Amino acid sequence: MPKQKTHRASAKRFSFTKTGKVKRACAFKAHILTKKSTKRTRKLRKGGYASATEAKMIRRLLPYK
Fold first, then answer.
1. What's domain 8-61's architecture?
2. 20-28: long-range contacts, CB 8 A cutoff, minimum separation 24
């Protein structure tokens, strides 16, 4: 059976913790930051974890991580 290919876009965006949770960055931090409050942009710096449903799909995209 041939090897599976890793989805490169997902590999750049997600990483896994030792316990198997999927780490991700917060959205809405790329542009149009002037109208967003300083408090809001500061909170967006912190990452988060993908939900269980999303994590299942991400694991399928990243078979060797």
1. Irregular (4.10)
2. 21/49, 21/50, 21/55, 22/49, 22/50, 22/54, 22/55, 22/58, 22/59, 23/47, 23/48, 23/49, 23/50, 24/48, 24/49, 24/50
